[in-house]
Amino acid sequence: MVTIEPLTGSEPDLYDLLVLGGLPKRAEDLAQGLAPRDFLYGAHDDDGVMLGMAFGLKSDYFHHHTVNNLLVHPDHRRAGIGTTLMNYIIEEARRVGHGEVILDLHPARPAEHRPFYSTLGFEMVDSSRARLVLG
Ligand SMILES: CC(C)(COP(=O)(O)OP(=O)(O)OC[C@H]1O[C@@H](n2cnc3c(N)ncnc32)[C@H](O)[C@@H]1OP(=O)(O)O)[C@@H](O)C(=O)NCCC(=O)NCCS
């Protein structure tokens, strides 16, 4: 089973995951740079191993959650972890009354994950973003 929970940013295995995903930012930098409106969630298995993460911003002004980085460990893709992370964020956005969730797409391959985000109900806004309007 996969569990989603907030991270502080200083988890040692977060940095390993970021490097594996080609996002070589130090986890400590992420911890220091986290603003109150940022969110950082981790997906763990039953043994506490981090299998995925999502980072983004909650904007009460724009009434949306924006997911800047969504990353699943390369050895654990296509097992529903990305979907579980996104569903968690969608539920969080609903819970605080936000009207939409924006997903930043990979800048070099914006259409590559279209099956992933369209299955979740997201539509492409432009070459860099997809959006889910919450009913
Ligand atoms: C995109 C990403 C987060 C998906 O995570 P995941 O845990 O593998 O996704 P899921 O297992 O929840 O996938 C759900 C469905 O989305 C679709 N999907 C996911 N990845 C896909 C891919 N690479 N190609 C085509 N369809 C894909 C499939 O329909 C899949 O269902 P299926 O496995 O039953 O066919 C992961 O591939 C990743 O970390 N990529 C690198 C980082 C990245 O590009 N992030 C930006 C995402 S927009």
Quick overview:
The protein is an alpha+beta fold and 135 residues long. It has a single domain, classed as Aminopeptidase (3-Layer(aba) Sandwich).
Write the layout of secondary structure elements.
Blueprint: E1 3-6, H1 12-20, H2 27-33, E2 38-44, E3 50-59, E4 64-72, H3 81-95, E5 100-104, H4 114-119, E6 123-126, E7 129-133
Parallel strand pairs: 4-5
Antiparallel strand pairs: 1-2, 2-3, 3-4, 5-7, 6-7
Bound molecules: coenzyme A (COA).
The site of coenzyme A (COA) has 19 residues, from strand 4, helix 3 and helix 4.
- Judged by helices, strands and strand pairing, the structural class is alpha+beta
Helix content: 25-40%
Question: Order of strands in the sheet with the most strands?
Answer: 1-2-3-4-5-7-6
CATH topology: the name is: Aminopeptidase
Give the oligomeric state of the chains in this entry, treating copies of one chain as homo and distinct chains as hetero: single chain
Keywords: Acyltransferase, Transferase
Pfam family, one: Acetyltransf_1
GO molecular function, one term: acyltransferase activity, transferring groups other than amino-acyl groups
Protein name: Acetyltransferase (GNAT) family protein
Note down, in words, how this protein is organized.
By secondary structure, the chain is an alpha+beta fold. It has a single domain, classed as Aminopeptidase. The chain has four helices and seven strands. A seven-stranded mixed beta sheet has the order 1-2-3-4-5-7-6, with helices on both faces. A hairpin with a 4-residue loop joins strand 3 and strand 4. The longest helix is centred in the middle third of the chain and has 15 residues, at 81-95. It is globular and about 35 Å long. Coenzyme A binds at residues 21, 70-72, 77-83, 103, 105-106, 113, 115-117, 119.
